[in-house]
Amino acid sequence: MQKLAQDRNTQLEIVNNYAKSFHGKPMDPEGFCGKSAGLVRAETALIAYMEKNKDWCSFPDEAISQLKEHHAKNTQFSAKACTVAAQMKKMKEQAAQGAGPQAQPLPAGPL
């Protein structure tokens, strides 16, 4: 349990430090997507452990439900960031292939 909680806290610190590094500016969704995956994974493992050992370890229901709420918010925010990152990547690929917005041709012939 202690190792799982420590892993979650470490991952949470990584995500928070990444967010703070932007000093209120918009974050890079691709970078956040990568950083938040560790937090989501750590929270999933911690919740599973707490639910499995709830009676044996006397974990309060409130603690489990609060962790689940935080996990749901973190998962949702991470999913949004990953979706935006995928869209940005797709747009960059299209622009690199010349599929971006086409410039209007200039008029030909005498003016």
Biggest β-sheet strands, sense, barrel:
none
Fraction in helix = over 70%
Beginning-to-end CA distance, first to last residue:
79 Å
How would you sum up the global shape?
elongated
Radius of gyration: 22 Å
Q: How many domain modules? A: 1
- The sequence of SSEs as H and E is HHHH
Count of individual beta strands: 0
- Determine the mean pLDDT: 89
Number of helices: 4
Hey, roughly how much beta strand do the residues contain? under 5%
Class by helix and strand content? mainly alpha
Low-confidence stretches: none
Report on the structure:
This protein is an all-alpha fold and 111 residues long. It has one domain (2-96). It is 75% helix and 0% strand. Helix 1 (2-20) runs antiparallel to helix 2 (29-52).
How does the SSE layout of this entry go?
Elements: H1 2-20, H2 29-52, H3 54-57, H4 61-96
Condensed summary:
This protein is mainly alpha-helical and 111 residues long. Helix content is 75%, strand content 0%.
